[in-house]
């Protein structure tokens, strides 16, 4: 007999339940199995709210919302008569919930989830029986009556020798009077241990959403790693002192019955996770983990370090104090504890920093700082970014003492999150096996999983992703973006994002939005943020138009229409290239340049003269190309005229100080004729040139390649490491 327990995130929806079903069917093929499940993610909190709701209409509305969630799961997992029967069974349970006393509402969640699972396994032709934990797990005086519970569980299993798979709700029990009660938040782990001990199981597996017990909370310490195996005692100490992956009472039944149990990741079933057993220390002085808990009533936090067979308490205590001192943290007393357990008190404001400092001292053998990164967008730039992170990892670690760890990755349809890291060479496979990214699910998952100080990288062209930036800042994340749409918002929104970043101590970097990896924004900001104020900015920053204009040579080479089609085919233009010809992309870049210079420029403040006349913009795309081809003689004549006077045309965005203009600066985008004395004259291909003139310094001329996914990816890495 074996017992498998699944947490709420593992059964959150039909997709995740399907993963659970695959895991259980594989296990049941090897041995008789008991499945213990939590309620679906968020259900227990919803039930608590339902129990507390005083308004009957409000209560009914909340019950209906929860019912719809479970119906949606049933509709995905079942068809035909099986679906109708499942929905009818759920409706019966929800009718009981509607009539339940407020304090009993919280006990229904596990009934819903396990009824769905039990029926689904039966539909898979597995001999299945649902067990009612309310009749098997008993409490007396608020404490589990283990002997009585074990006898009930053993009798129930023995009474059904033909059953291959039992399904039981976790968390719930009943007291001596038969009244339904609970085992506390996290109690489903405890339920599983009780079932394992009572059924005399040979194995217990606790399936959750993390890869086992870790050396620290990965949201606090990104460098934390999975503990491969740990003793019952050490696991219990960590659980009692803040390691939330394991509910502390779970350990006792398993330990007393001598059942080794493992903590596994439902979303990475191949990972072995952590084995908790009566193992002796493999070697002297092993360190297991560091955790912490806040004592709100005392205004302090306790950091706990746990080892096994520690050789010298004095040496370990000295290392703890030295690590805190190096991090600038003053403890609120000395190191306490006994045996292999060490406690030290600190102020709550430095709790996480203290955990990180002690983890570095005892668990991180290289002085390399891990930078957790979550990447949105796996198009050309995102793909190259992931590739370069892999290629440059050793060099960055050696030269910068840092390691970029990809913990999350999303494309337009799927996403994957793994706090242990996603290897660049596995990125595509992980996305293919990932979760549905619809309706902002990736950012929701990032906010739930990301450690403070992580970096969210926006490599998308999404028009709306910036609407979630403020949430990310409030969640403790930094943002690096190459998505210029997120910076060319109305100024009040742009300023609000910058303020949100400052207020949350986060950085907001976007150097690649103008000029790719060229240091254009950095140069402007350095002038604008000191006494040397900006007089003017002139920029040729449209890679598309530069490619077309510099490649056009009248009758000597390809026509303008041919060049434009080629640029479109090579992905240098928007889907409709007239967006570029009309100056919209240049406008976004000019807004970013101006705002970096401290000018609150709006799109309506900019005078734009498109490269072509209005007759080219009021027709379908194919007709546009026909008109462009018909106009070729005029283009040839104009090019000959320019050659005769040694002039060239460039599409220039400019911002010049003008006291009569809005905000004290005049902004315009238009074609200009330039001679050999201008740096714009010498542009070729997709090069960009920006000239920044300030009051006291000589003009800065910044020139270089403005296009290329490798350059963009390199610039993003620079922003991450800055």
Give a verbal description of the structure:
This protein has 26 helices and 28 strands. It is of the alpha/beta class and about 725 residues long. The protein folds into four domains: about 1-40 and about 115-210, Carbamate kinase, CATH 3.40.1160.10; about 285-365, Alpha-Beta Plaits, CATH 3.30.70; about 370-510, NAD(P)-binding Rossmann-like Domain (Rossmann fold, 3-Layer(aba) Sandwich), CATH 3.40.50; about 520-705, Dihydrodipicolinate Reductase, domain 2. The strands form six sheets. It has an eight-stranded mixed sheet with strand order 3-6-2-1-9-11-12-10, with helices on both faces. The protein has a seven-stranded mixed sheet with strand order 19-18-17-16-20-21-22, sandwiched between helices. A six-stranded mixed sheet has the order 24-26-25-23-27-28. The mean pLDDT is about 90.
Describe the largest sheet. Answer: 8 strands, mixed
Structural class: alpha/beta
CATH architecture field of the largest domain: 2-Layer Sandwich
- The pLDDT mean sits at 92
What percent of residues adopt helix (DSSP H or I)? 40-55%
Count of DSSP strands:
28
């Amino acid at each position: 007999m074996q017992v498998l327990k699944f947490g709420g995130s593992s059964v959150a929806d039909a997709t995740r339940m399907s993963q659970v079903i695959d895991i259980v069917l594989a296990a049941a093929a090897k041995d008789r199995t008991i499945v213990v499940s939590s309620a679906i993610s968020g259900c227990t909190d919803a039930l608590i709210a339902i129990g507390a709701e005083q308004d009957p209409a409000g209560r009914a509305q909340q019950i209906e919302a929860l019912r719809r969630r479970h119906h949606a799961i049933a509709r995905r997992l079942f068809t035909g008569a099986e679906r109708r029967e499942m929905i009818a069974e759920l409706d019966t349970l929800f009718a009981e919930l509607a009539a339940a006393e407020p304090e009993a509402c919280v006990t229904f969640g596990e009934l819903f989830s396990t009824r769905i699972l039990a029926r689904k396994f039966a539909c898979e032709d597995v001999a299945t029986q649902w067990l009612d934990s309310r009749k098997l797990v008993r409490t007396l005086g608020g404490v589990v009556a283990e002997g009585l519970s074990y006898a009930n569980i053993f009798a129930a299993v023995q009474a059904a020798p033909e059953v291959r798979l039992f399904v039981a709700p976790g968390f719930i029990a009943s007291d001596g009077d038969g009244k339904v009660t609970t085992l506390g938040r996290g109690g489903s782990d405890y339920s599983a241990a009780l079932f394992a001990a009572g059924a005399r199981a040979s194995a217990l597996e606790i399936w959750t959403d993390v890869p086992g017990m870790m050396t620290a909370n990965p949201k606090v310490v990104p460098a934390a790693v999975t503990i491969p195996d740990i003793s019952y005692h050490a696991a219990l100490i960590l659980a009692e002192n803040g390691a939330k992956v394991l509910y502390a009472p779970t350990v006792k039944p398993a330990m007393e019955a001598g059942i080794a149990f493992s903590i596994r990741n439902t979303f990475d079933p191949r990972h072995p996770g952590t084995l908790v057993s009566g193992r002796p220390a493999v070697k002297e002085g092993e360190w297991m983990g560091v955790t912490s808990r806040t004592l709100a009533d005392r205004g302090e936090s306790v950091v706990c370090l746990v080892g096994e067979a520690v050789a010298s308490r004095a040496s370990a205590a000295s290392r703890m104090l030295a690590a805190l001192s190096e991090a600038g943290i003053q403890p609120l007393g000395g190191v306490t504890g006994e045996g292999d357990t060490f406690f030290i008190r600190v102020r709550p404001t430095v709790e996480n920093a203290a955990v990180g400092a002690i983890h570095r001292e005892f668990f991180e053998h290289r002085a390399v700082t891990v930078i957790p990164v979550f990447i949105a967008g796996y198009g050309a730039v995102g793909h190259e970014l992931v590739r370069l992170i892999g290629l440059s990892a050793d060099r960055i670690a050696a030269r910068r003492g840092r390691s970029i760890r990809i913990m999350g990755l999303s494309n337009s349809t799927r996403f994957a999150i793994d706090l242990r890291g996603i290897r660049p060479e596995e990125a595509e496979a992980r996305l293919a096996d990932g979760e549905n990214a619809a309706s902002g699910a990736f950012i929701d998952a990032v906010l739930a999983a990301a450690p403070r100080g992580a970096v969210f990288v926006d490599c998308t062209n999404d028009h709306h992703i910036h609407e979630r930036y403020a949430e990310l800042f409030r969640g403790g994340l930094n943002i690096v973006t190459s998505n210029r749409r997120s910076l060319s918002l109305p100024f009040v929104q742009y300023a609000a994002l910058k303020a949100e970043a400052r207020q949350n101590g986060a950085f907001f970097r976007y150097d690649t939005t103008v000029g790719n990896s060229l240091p254009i924004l950095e140069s402007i900001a350095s002038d604008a943020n000191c006494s040397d104020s900006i007089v003017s900015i002139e920029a040729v920053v449209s890679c598309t138009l530069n490619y077309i204009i510099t490649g056009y040579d009248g009758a000597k080479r390809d026509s303008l229409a041919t060049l434009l089609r080629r640029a479109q085919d090579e992905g240098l233009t928007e889907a409709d290239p007239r967006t570029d010809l009309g100056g919209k992309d240049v406008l976004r870049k000019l807004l970013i340049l101006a705002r970096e210079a401290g000018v609150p420029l709006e799109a309506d403040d900019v005078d734009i003269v498109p490269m072509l006349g209005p007759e080219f913009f009021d027709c379908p795309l194919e007709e546009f190309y026909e008109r462009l081809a018909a106009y070729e003689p005029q283009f040839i004549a104009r090019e000959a005229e320019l050659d005769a006077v040694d002039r060239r045309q460039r599409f220039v965005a400019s911002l010049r100080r003008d006291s009569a203009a809005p905000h004290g600066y005049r902004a315009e985008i238009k074609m200009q004729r330039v001679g050999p004395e201008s740096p714009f004259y010498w542009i070729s291909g997709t090069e960009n040139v920006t000239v920044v003139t300030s009051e006291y310094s000589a003009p800065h001329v910044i020139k270089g390649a403005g296009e290329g996914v490798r350059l963009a990816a390199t610039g993003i890495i620079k922003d991450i490491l800055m």
